[in-house]
Amino acid sequence: MRTINQGQLFSAIVESTFGAVGVRSDGQVVQELVYLPPTFDEKAPTDAVAERAAVQLERYLSDPDYRFDLPLATVGTAFQQRVWQAIAAIPRGEVLTYGDIARAIRSAPRAVGQACGANWFPLVIPCHRVTATGGLGGFAHSDDDTGFHLGVKRWLLAHEKVPGYR
Q: Is 127 a catalytic residue?
């Protein structure tokens, strides 16, 4: 059985306090951003788009007010894109609930949660800014309160100085 080097999966890997962010690009657009545990080593960008993404990720990780400007692949259903557009409008330092987004786009909270979990571009489309009515909610299709993904969500909300997460 052939083993694939973890770094071969990504065009760049940017280290962060919570682990790392993997960048997949095709040289034209960012195909996907992925939260990675700390077992992944940093990887230098393999193309200009990955380099642009890596630089912008590093800027955001040092300054939560940094705004991304990346060429993103067109992905998702029309519904998911409506949800992602609503999420992208949430200002840094604020959160909305799944129900808030659902009311804004005339949908259901569970459907909004599914679209959040299907987000191909976390951080650029800040799904961490969407919480449950009674607390943190899930993140990246995970709701394990002590797990990696919810730890990332907590870190991001604290990084963005959201009240209650500092």
A: yes
Catalytic residue among 127, 140, 152, 162: 127
Domains of the chain by range and CATH?
Answer: 6-62 (no CATH), 78-159 (1.10.10.10)
- CA-CA distance, 18 to 72, in Å (whole number)? 24
- Mean pLDDT, the chain, rounded, equals 91
DSSP string across 116-146: HHT-SSBTTB-GGGEEBTTB---BTTB--TT
Q: Which two tokens stand for residue 41?
A: 């080593």
pLDDT at 35 over 50: yes
Share of the chain above pLDDT 70, in %: 90
Cα–Cα distance between 76 and 74 in angstroms, integer?
Answer: 7
Q: For 61-81, b where at least 16 C-beta lie within 10 A, e where not — what string?
A: beebeeebebebeeebeeebe
Total-model pTM = 0.89
